[in-house]
Amino acid sequence: MSKASREFNVPDALANLYDFANTLDLRHFTHYGVQHQQAEELADPAALGEWLRQRGLIDRGAVPTQRTFEAALQLRGAVRDYLKSDLAERRRKASVIAPLNKAMEPFALRVAAIGKDGFGLIPLQADAQAGLSAIVAELYNAAAAGTLDRLKMCAADECQRVFFDRSKPGTRRWCQSTLCGNREKTRTYRERHKHESGSET
Ligand SMILES: [Zn+2]
Hints:
Layout: H1 3-7, H2 15-21, E1 24-25, E2 30-31, E3 34-35, E4 39-40, H3 45-54, H4 66-84, H5 87-92, H6 94-104, E5 109-113, E6 119-123, H7 129-145, E7 151-153, E8 162-164, H8 177-200
Helix pairs in contact: 4-6
Bound molecules: zinc ion.
């Protein structure tokens, strides 16, 4: 669980998944005159290892191999594409589903009795790969609990941050309506206005 997941009230059960999807920060809007800097938290295998360790997802000594690192980036890309898709696409569109299945393949899980919570999925491996398998398990658990549908990507092109939709109907499109939503509405208005005044001349 990270500071961001707590700040935005993301349920603990999918906090690692939320953080993982947001390790790539593509935001490039200007807010109060300050340009947001884009960032990549997983720049190399060592950075991935540190990220997983901070969340207690791998043992101290475990270091991801180059291969695991590449598989992690594949997984993140496929997860982000999946979360970017609307709910109907997630259930039907092969170009969303197939790449995610392929990206999840290296991360084996098994069923285990886990005490007071009954049974759960736990990573089959014990190496650095296990940390990413734990994230795949969160994906499965969230889908089973019905909360995955509320994990979405902000519809603003200059944001694309993954957020957890806490609205009652679950139909939010922007991570923050007051920022991303307003920016887009203002732009749509301006474009329409420009178009209308352009067609008059
Ligand atoms: Zn946004």
